[in-house]
Give the backbone structure.
Amino acid sequence: MMKKYALLFLAFAISVSVAGCTVSQASDKDQYGSYLSELNNGNAEFNSARGMYETAMNAFKGGMYFDAISAMSASHDYYYNAMIRYDQMAVYASGPDQEEYADALKSYAQSCMYAATAYADAYRAYQSGDRFRGDTLMGNAAGYVTQANQYHDKAVELQRMAIV
C-alpha cells in the first residue's frame, strides 16, 4: 500500500518538476472521479428534494398545510444541498464546458430552492387566512419554476452535446 502511494507521489512530483504546473494522469483521474462523485451526490440530493416537493404538493392539495410546509421546507434543504454539490463540481471540472454544465445544474437547483421557499411561504399565508399573499407567493414560485425549467433545458442541452 505504501508503495502505491509512494509511486503516486513520485509521479506527481516528477510531472510538477518537469512541466511546472502539469498535473499527473493519476491526479486527473482523481479529479474527474471527484467531479463525478459530486454529480452523483448532487443528483441524490436533488432526487430527495423532488420527492419531498411532490409530498408537499400532495399535502397542499389535500388541505394539510402543516404537512405541506414541513415537506416543502425539507425540499428546500435538499435543493440547497444539491446546489452546494453542483457548485463543488465546478471545482473539479477539467474545462470551461464542464464548469458551464455544473453551473447550469447549480442554477437549476437554486431556482428550485427559491421556488420551494416561495411555496412554503404561500402555504403559511394560506394557513393564516391571507389568500392575497398566498396567491402572490404562488405566482412568485411559478416564476422560479419557469426559471428552473430554463436552467434544466440548458443542462440537458449541454449533456446532449456530450460536454459532461
User: Anything to note?
Assistant: The domain at 29-160 is CATH 1.20.120 (Four Helix Bundle (Hemerythrin (Met), subunit A)). The chain is about 90% helix and 0% strand. The chain has a mean pLDDT of 82.
